[in-house]
Structure formats: C-alpha cells, structure tokens
Prior knowledge:
seven-stranded parallel sheet, three-stranded mixed sheet, single chain, alpha/beta, 368 residues, 13 helices, Rossmann fold
Amino acid sequence: MKILVTGGAGFIGSALVRHLIAHTNHSVLNVDKLTYAGNLESLAPVAGNPRYVFEQVDICDSLALARIFAQHRPQAVMHLAAESHVDRSIDGPVEFVRTNVVGTCTLLEAARHYWLGLDHQARSDFRFHHISTDEVYGDLSDTAGFFTESTPYAPSSPYSASKAGADHLVRAWHRTYGLPTLVTNCSNNYGPCHFPEKLIPLVILNAREGRPLPVYGRGLQIRDWLYVEDHARALVRVLEAGTPGETYNIGGHNEQRNIDVVRAICELLEELAPDHPHGVAHYADLITYVTDRPGHDRRYAIDATKIARELGWTPRETFATGLRKTVQWYLDHRDWCERVQDGRYRRERLGLDETITGDPTPAERPQP
C-alpha cells in the first residue's frame, strides 16, 4: 500500500515510518506541520529511501490536503498528527482543539471526498486509521480493573478532551458516511527519539547533566508503559487486518508508578553511566518532588485482550528490557539530544541563526 502518515516526524510517527520502511513493502507519504516536536532527524534512516516521501503540511489546511490526496493517491491514512503534551494543553488549550479536533475533521473530510472518487474495489480496500490515547478514558483507582474498548469516555485535561473529540468524529464519519475507519487507543509510549519534555527522556538527560529530576506530587501516579516499536508493530497489524468501525486498545502490560520509573532509570544509569556529574554521588539524590499537576489522573491501565485475541499482537518488550534499550539509546545519541535541547534541529530547519523563543527548554518543565 501507499500509506499517508500524518505526524510522521513526531515520536510515535517517526517510529511507525521507520518500521514501515524497514519491515514492510509499503510506501509512506509523511505529512507533518513540523511543530516543535516534529524532528526530521528522527527519520534520517529512511530519508533517502525511494518508498518514502515527505510533505510539510498543516492538517488544518484543506486545500493542501486535497492536493496531497489527488497527487499521491494513498490507499490508507494513519493519522497521528496531534498536540500531545498535557502541561502545554493546560497552558494553551486552543491550539490543542485546533489541531486535534479541527485538524482531524479537516483530514476526515479530505479523505472522504477522495474516497468517494475511488472505484468500488479501491473504496472497499481504503482505510482511515486514527491513533489515539488511553487518556480519553479518564483514570482508574488502584483496584478498578482496566480500560477496555467499551469503557466510557471521561477525559480530564484539555489534551485528552481534544483527543476524545477526535475519536468521536472518526466514529461519526464511519457511521454517517461509511468511511472505513479504525481507532486505536494506546498506553504511555517510551523509546528512542522521544522529545525530552516527556518523563523518561527528561529524567535520563537531567540526570546526566546533574539537574533535578522533577516528580509530580509523591510520584504515585500509575501508567501502563508501551515500548514504541511494539506500538508500531501493533499499528501496522491493525491497519492490515483490523475490522472497519472497530476500536483496538494497545497496551504494554507494564504498569509502573512514576516514582518507580524514575528510580529504575537511576539504577540503570548507575550501571551504564557510572561517571556521575560533578557533585552527584548517586543519580537518585537528584529526585525532587514538585507540586502536582491540576487534575492529574491517578492510574491508566489498558486491557489489550481484544487485539491479542483477534489480531494476534502482543508486546515483545518487558518494561525492564525496553527501558534498558531506551536508556542506552539516549546515552549513545548525545548529539541528537543536544540538538533538540538547544533548538538547533529547529533553527537549521527554519534557516535561522538566532535562538528560538517561546518554548521553554525541556529541563524547565516537569514531566507528564
């Protein structure tokens, strides 16, 4: 297939694109606006591949999307483009509504009009795969079981509310117009090329620089962690074999408290990077508790029984094996990290020499 991937320069998107090019025969058209979190350097392994094409386009631009569908004629859409940082959504919710709700609606309409012009077989084969989050379900108590595909929506933040709105639109376009859609809701991802404002890369990089390791509240929030390459495999499996109109939850079967994740990273760094920063005796000494986020969800936990039963997907990585690979990747790719941290990846892309202002450095933000 020729697959249109939106947000393919982001963390999960770039992992998906790399997987598609390396492990399938599909072709990829990557459509990305290239906001602060979009980094083409994460796609360096596929940049010269003849099955890969990049278009810098905002999914809210209906004319540009119409041109892309007409010119490239994809057989599937995998929609990952989204604003995704909860803290940023609290500070500025309007941009999240614009991208996640209005952008998804604009993309759905472009896809629908293109799909209606296809012949009968091509219309039947076409897929619109919307990639969402478990945060749309709200949160769980420590003993309240797991999120399933039928769990009622109860989003807590502007980010999760905007993703919930996008999910509803995708399902409405399937029921009202017959567009063959698929929805997946995933748990917290981690792995290589994660933007350093997120918990795991932030802790790794701050620890190596001798900076505080900020932990919200007492760090008792529980998340189900999914290695990003396992997620990419699951997404391809859903696209190729999922039933239109269905939803599939994707989880890593790796529930961890935030504080335990931070401590596990510190333990790995003691082993893999024993040369501590000046003045630091143990990495764990850098752990700093900060004021909790407003409306912070207590626990997320995915029941991934359906995708295992119907599509045969299960994660390959445990949290221990995936975290070790992740920490080692960040230690081995200091240049990538430094270019993200100091903004060079954006300045060079934009042809600028001066420092870009308006976005705090990752180390200045608490983790999600």
